[in-house]
From TrEMBL:
It catalyses: L-leucine + 2-oxoglutarate = 4-methyl-2-oxopentanoate + L-glutamate; L-isoleucine + 2-oxoglutarate = (S)-3-methyl-2-oxopentanoate + L-glutamate; L-valine + 2-oxoglutarate = 3-methyl-2-oxobutanoate + L-glutamate. GO terms for cellular component: mitochondrion. PANTHER family: BRANCHED-CHAIN-AMINO-ACID AMINOTRANSFERASE, SUBGROUP IIII AMINOTRANSFERASE. InterPro entries: Aminotrans_IV, Aminotrans_IV_CS, Aminotransferase-like, B_amino_transII, BCAT-like_C, BCAT-like_N, BCAT_family. Keywords: Amino-acid biosynthesis, Aminotransferase, Branched-chain amino acid biosynthesis, Pyridoxal phosphate, Transferase. It comes from the Eukaryota. The keyword Transferase applies. One of its GO terms (biological process) is L-leucine biosynthetic process. Its EC number is 2.6.1.42. It is an enzyme of class 2 (transferase). This is Branched-chain-amino-acid aminotransferase. The modification N6-(pyridoxal phosphate)lysine is found at K271.
Amino acid sequence: MPPIAITPPNEENSTSDLTVAGIEHSLSKTAPSVFKSATNANGTTLSDHLTDGPANENKFPKGISTPLAELDASLLNISLTSSPRPVPALGSPEMASQKVCTDHMIQAKWTVEHGWAAPSLQPFGPISLMPTASCLHYATECFEGMKLYRGHDGKLRLFRPQLNCNRMLVSTNRIALPAFPPTELLKLIVKLCATDGAKWLPKDRPGSFLYIRPTMIASDPALGVQRPKEALLFVILTCFPAMDGSPTGLKLLASKDDMVRAWPGGFGYAKVGANYGPSLVAQGEARALGYDQILWLFGETCNVTEAGASNFFVVWKTRDGNTQIVTAPLDERIILDGITRRSVLELARTRLVAGSANLELPAVEIVERKFTMHEIEEAANEGRLIEAFAAGTAFFIAPVGHIHFRGGDVKVPMKEGEGGQYTSVIKRWLKGIMWGQEQHEWGFVVDEE
């Protein structure tokens, strides 16, 4: 599977060309080292993908003689709080409120005149914005969702954090916010986790986590539909309840013709606030009817895309008798390139396909393709539907037990409280990596302070 992309694919229409050109221009001006590492030996063509490797020795493109200051974690200013906050008890209403944050936060300011100022680690608290700030009027903001885990071996871990930082660059590119070297963002996140992790995830709470929310907003205090000239990056750590367990599985309400979450040529692939706010009316109505999330469908054929804000997987047998794990593809850039989604697919391709060493379950085919709600209905009616689950940072791996579609109900097989056997084993593998029960390269150990 390729790394997360810097730009949308260069489609054959002027709008897409303008988007790609705009992203390339922004990268060259606001993060020239990233642009440099993504160009070829001639320094003229931007690669389709951002790799995790070091910058190469390509020359800067013409016209970038004095680039703006880039985000630089080595310049971090540290100011520790004099008023530490209490840590909520496990299972308390405060823990479940999703609004209790740790003692500190990261901030960094960008301006079009100077680029990135020195970032700061400072006491958690309010931020100041003018009422005319761009983000309040034009949805110029994006974010990431990550977790900091307290392992059963006593260590603090992140899970594949470089991919989150890469994806946040994708989002800032799409929403006209300044670029940055993803490795520098990761250093800032790690510093915040190292500072607050020991207190807020004590060693007597193995298996617990904090939610990490890196965010960038356009703080430009001028009205007008234009590229922002000022931006603020901040990172916070928040107490968060586990959301992956339900004895009956998630109940999903399939979207109707008047609901569209994302579309080709849009921004469904970017983690921007504009993807979420417009979905809240439908989500609220679904919950009022007793459902957990919307299963978002697209087009007249009712193609399955996402479950709420999570990627969706189905396990079924084909009419030829083959067992498949199926999820929607990324090629139309309607769905988010989820870190959990990517990890599920990579684990399944190495541990669940024919020929895998130590195969725990019957081998499956891993399929990324368009599929419809009608196909799920047919599989259920013909006894071929095996299980289904949602995958994302917040909901983790959550089994699906019920889907309502066009007046009918699809019952998804699952074991009580566990989900199906493929759902359960994938969830166990991921938890083992996240909480240190399996030593794996995806587990990024944080040395706490």
